[in-house]
């Protein structure tokens, strides 16, 4: 049940988990952690050569900020679209956006 009185909340990820996309992940802001109603914000590590499995975000938007490295994000039914994000770039993923895959754009460097 949602809190009738929203409040400011802070949290610090306390452990790394492996996601369905097969990437190391530190859980941050979501409906499960702070009762967010449409936002997802986590720390994801993309090791060299790793890539997320194609997936879809249902019911929430995703904001991505690249801390380090370069990330190639592909989307569309056949992953026909792509954008490269570098350290310092933001990326917005709308809710219910079709299949998405993110990979390190530099084969020998991780991306955060």
What report would you give on this structure?
This protein has 112 residues and is mostly beta strands. The protein is built from 1 helix and 8 strands, in the order E-E-H-E-E-E-E-E-E. Strands 1-2-3-4-7 form a 5-stranded mixed beta sheet. Strand 1 (16-18) and strand 2 form a beta hairpin. The N and C termini lie far apart (33 Å).
Which terms summarize this structure?
mainly beta, 1 helix, five-stranded mixed sheet, single chain, three-stranded antiparallel sheet, 112 residues
Summarize the structure.
With 112 residues, this protein is mainly beta.
Let me know the number of strands: 8
- The number of helical elements comes to 1
The fraction of residues in strands falls at 35-45%
Helix content: under 10%
Largest pleated sheet: 5 strands, mixed
Instruction: Give the uncertain stretches in residue-range form.
Output: none
Mean pLDDT: 80
> Rg from C-alpha positions?
15 Å
Largest sheet, order of strands side by side? 1-2-3-4-7
The H/E string reads: EEHEEEEEE
Backbone shape: globular
Please report the distance between the alpha carbons of the first and last residues: 33 Å
Provide the structure class. mainly beta
Structural topology:
Layout: E1 16-18, E2 24-29, H1 31-34, E3 39-44, E4 61-65, E5 70-75, E6 81-86, E7 90-93, E8 100-104
Parallel strand pairs: 3-4
Antiparallel strand pairs: 1-2, 2-3, 4-7, 5-6, 5-8
